[in-house]
Amino acid sequence: MIPSSDVFWRDDVKMWWPMADQNPVTAYAYVMKRVADSDPAVMACKRRRTCVQAGGYIGFWPLRLAAAFERVLTFEVMEGCLEACRRNCAALPNIEVSGLGLGAVDGETLPIRPSASAGGWRVHPEGQLVAQMTTIDTMALTDCDLIVLDIEGHEIEALKGAAETIARCKPVIHVEERGENLKALPAYLRGLGYRQHVRIHADTVYVPA
Questions:
Q1: Of the four, 83, 110, 113, 209, which is 20 to 30 A from 101 by CA?
Q2: What does pTM read for this prediction?
Q3: Domain annotation covers residue 115
Q4: What percent of the chain has a predicted confidence (pLDDT) above 90?
């Protein structure tokens, strides 16, 4: 987990928020335009049992997904966001919040680079902070119907750590595609037997071909 854990209550939006976010008003406006982007992925799911979602930020996406799924497993490594996410999601028993990151190797630690936006912290070789990772396969899920990844360029590594789950469960996969991932993610998912279903803003939903 990444410091700081300090959070404050925003009465204007009725949610806990990380003190480390330097632009909370701008961040909220941005998220409100994007939080519904996961809806097409939900609609593409034939069943809605377990959803794996990362990064959890302060809870917007797990809260929305929890209205559709029996169980939502959300992951967030930035400690301030993690604490806010736990508080904001506390009333819903079908949301499980973890402070681990999702990657290709269970138990590895990776450098994290901070950002002015608390939701923009990312794995980066020059990062001076450290996050502990796990894999989706480590959870040994048998009912994973949706994977949602918005983890700032680390999506392919998380998918590598979900290879067994993807082969077993054939979940719908919703990923953010930016930068190098614009070409790398589509190619990787085609190799797993997936096709593009729909693109929304910077995100793409993939379904088994």
A1: 209
A2: 0.93
A3: yes
A4: 78
